Amino acid sequence: xxxxxxxxxxxxxxxxxxxxxxxxxxxxxxxxxxxxxxxxxxxxxxxxxxxxxxxxxxxxxxxxxxxxxxxxxxxxxxxxxxxxxxxxxxxxxxxxxxxxxxxxxxxxxxxxxxxxxxxxxxxxxxxxxxxxxxxxxxxxxxxxxxxxxxxxxxxxxxxxxxxxxxxxxxxxxxxxxxxxxxxxxxxxxxxxxxxxxxxxxxxxxxxxxxxxxxxxxxxxxxxxxxxxxxxxxxxxxxxxxxxxxxxxxxxxxxxxxxxxxxxxxxxxxxxxxxxxxxxxxxxxxxxxxxxxxxxxxxxxxxxxxxxxxx
Length: 310
What we know:
With 310 residues, this protein is of the alpha/beta class. The chain has helices at 53-63, 70-77, 107-118, 148-151, 190-196, 198-201, 209-219, 278-282; strands at 3-8, 13-19, 37-41, 79-85, 126-130, 160-162, 167-171, 180-185, 248-251, 258-262, 265-269, 291-296, 302-306.
């Protein structure tokens, strides 16, 4: 849906302005009275030779309150939610020559390794997992839950919840609070908008998830251009339509860390846990490895914590 301002002619409109649906300005900036934290990350790419396993283990030590100083341990103890927004593993046959960049050549073994790492995380942290384009699910969106045929070991995690890509997740609701609504989208369409929208391309392109996410919120759709993402319609519903204004909009895919606010929606672009591969370099992807976004749900403050990388 768009609005057009202009002058009517003979069966034609001479347009002066296009007005997009955008999100409401009146969206509430929610907070809670409890000192609870949520962590957002993406793009582990376990199985790649460039997976920063040592850095990820440092992160696990921190979230288990074993790493860092006393203040950092206290903050870690307040983490109740961990979101992983796609690409848990590097996958198999994702792009030409990928096999030369893999340390684990079997996708099931990649997921088994992922299970071993995530199983180290303390069980009072709820882990929410959605797939990405490197995971062993169909590429077309919406992507279903991770397939138990390949990622079955992950389903043994007692503290894990699996969702689709994209998905709308509500956390921390109770009788007195409606909870926080979080829109998760791995971000496959982002490359298209980073390369083809002039206002984004000339200001950093695919290194600016913040600009891309704002662009999509204004159009109320995660892939408003045909062919910017592979898409399968289901049940007469457009699953990429942003029909509800959420408190958070979180993505991955670009391997860039960003935190911005647009009309009270906290937009978080997640970094990664893998170095830059030759394939990424060709596509202009410059990663921010070994970083997480830590959100204090009491204040809505966001901090970027770094556990290594370059």
